[in-house]
Amino acid sequence: METINAAQPILQVRDLRVQAGSQPILKGVSFDLYPGEVLGLIGESGAGKSTLGLAALGHMRGGCACVGGEVLFRGQDVFSLPPRQAGMLRGRRITYVAQSAAASFNPAYTLESQIAEPLRRGGGSSGPIARTIRNLFRRLGLPQPDIFGARYPHQVSGGQLQRAMTAMALAPEPDIVVFDEPTTALDVTTQLEVLAAIKQAIREEGSAALYISHDLAVVSQISDRIMVLRHGQMVEEGTTRELIDTPKQDYTRRLLNVSHAVVPAEVREDARDEVLSIRGLSARYGSVPVLDDVTLGVRRGTTLAVVGESGSGKSTLAKVVTGLVPAAGGTLTFAGKALRPTLKARDKDTLRRMQMIFQIPDTALNPRQTVGEIIGRPLSFYFGLPRAEVERRVADLLRDIELGPEFARRYPSELSGGQKQRVCIARALAADPDLIICDEVTSALDPLVAEGIIKLLRRLQEEKGVSYIFITHDLGTVKAIAHDIAVMRRGRVVDCGARDAVLSPPFHPYTELLFTSLPTTREGWLEEALAKRPDPDALDGTAPGASQEAGQANARTGHRRGADRPVASGMGG
Amino acid sequence: MTRFTRLRGFPLSTWLPLGVLVVITLAVAVGPAFLPYRAEEIVGDLWEPMSWAHPLGTDQLGRDMLARVLEGGRTSLSLAAVIAGLAFLFGSGAGLTAAFLGGWVDTALSRAVDLLMAFPPLIFALLTIAVLGNSIPVLVTVLTLFEALRIFRLTRSLAMEIAVQEFVAVARLRGEGIGWILFREILPNGMVPLMAELAIRFVFGLLFLSSLSFLGLGVPPPAPDWGGMVRDNAPAVSFGLSAPLVPAAMIAIVAVCVNLVADSLLHTRGRSRSAEG
User: Which CATH superfamily is domain A274-557 in?
Assistant: First the structure.
């Protein structure tokens, strides 16, 4: 074979056009990928970035068809290859890392046997294959690399599984690896580890990579060049520094501004009385404790952000407060009255005063009801308004959420994700509540859409004086909406207080870990954050250092409440 | 999408059986009024071949076959419809309740249904009818019970799938009563597969009823019905005559057409789901 000239692109995409039925997905996209180079593909959902990533593998999703252009791997059109050769190309020369490693591994086989399979099919012998895989495990920072591969997919954590998938992609020493949102489903602290492991491994292996993500900050940490996609077309392309420092297109600038924090909400010192007080709350699923001695308060007309990673108990907190899950202990006081533990025991007016907005607007709206029926129901249910009055109020509410009155006749399937979430907000507002619990309301949305939702929630708070509990794992939005912050970890509140107190030094170590793990577009951030980070396992709430430090912070600001009490029993793992 | 545009999207394989069903229903409903003979009137020799006077020939007693097929269709189709409708009402009501309430209500209902489904329906029906006599109320009760079991199972599993969706949680948080949640939030989302099931239950009701009549334990005489007509005319087969095939063909045509329509209902549901996702 001829030697590969470094100046010759290894992958060339020429004016690629893809359609699903008559719907264009890609409208003529071109780029070159050179050996050893990492190209970031960024865009919102529907931009066509995943379709483009799969096209690099010579693969089309079901229902999609290539209607023009070509994808050349070393000058050869990948779509015209006979199936056998295309298979060889995909498993060995170009490999793929999917967003959900859990769905990509077969639960019935050990990790190592699955990673080794393409190598064995390629004719390798088992000794060297096992060595290659173990070296990769070591390089990706997996624990006990020599025996890690003997585990089954369900025996390892999500972050480890994602790294195992990266090992699988790198094992055949491919020329190109396609990463499709590999860290999107992970917690921020895990994302940091996986991102660093991927970056180091592809540098050391010298593979070229396509890195697909909706998060510009993540892409900027790992890519040499970035291409911005929107509606199946390229918006802008350039080296990472160029694109971040001097974006040429307005759309790129807007994406960049989202990842730089929005203007923070004003701190409300005047609001003192608590609309909701949570004292010593605990809850369990069966015998598994999920909330342990949680004490928090929501001040009237302000937002309490509850921050935490998956498994921290933040969503359970919402369920206990709303009565969907009964508490095992502790008290809830809402609007001056003790709150009954179960939904059935609460009266209609209490239910009205506390509304909830869910993470995924698609499942929170009944697909067989029109927007008018959905928003109108609380009006007729709680206030018994006559039909004409309901219609008038629905139109008002639709205006409040920046949609026109004509939306009342539409069905949820005719709305975009952001519009659906706005309808959920209008439904909550229709009850004229004192408190709205927002459970990850922006997590399923694109960054620009999420920004719009945050602005809307803030405006509605200013106009109507409603309080929010804003539950999220997305720390970027916390700064924009929170007046108070509570940081949760493994069912306990480890840090809480006014936003500025929590977000300024001295930090609680876990809070610091969370916020320093939040990706930024700054050059060298990834390496810095990784070097600075404390060992997450040393941060257990029971560690004496941690609670001592929080105690000091408590004394210093005089504003932190009920944070990090030493708990005798601990969390039992 | 409105209901009308959804209908317009159906292919010929839906329109054709739907058209046949409409024609049969109309003929059965109003046809007898336009015929010169009544169903029980003896108008000629036994098993006369097809002619202008008797388009489908005559039966084993010399009665006009066309008049009897239409009259028999009234009995068979209306009974099958009543059975399917009642079974749907009870089956889906119980299924929804079991799925939403869960706990001991669900366990009790589900185990009772399991128990009843363990009996071979035909033998159970024959026994019951032998004990209670073959009157129409007994027939309807027994058949409704068996059809309702299947509908219960489908409704329960559908409703459980829908009940965990967040819009149901929203309704519960709002303080809605069980009636609203079952019939306004859950049921509309399971309507398409339930309608297809209803159609299939109708077919099975018709077949079950015809089998019982063929065995002589179905619709009591003198009212003609399709299954009984097959039985009455069965001896003609030994003479190479087509008489018993006429009511048998009617049963088959209705069964196939209803199945085709139900099939396409489910099919469009799959299509619209994937288009949304």
Answer: P-loop containing nucleotide triphosphate hydrolases (3.40.50.300)
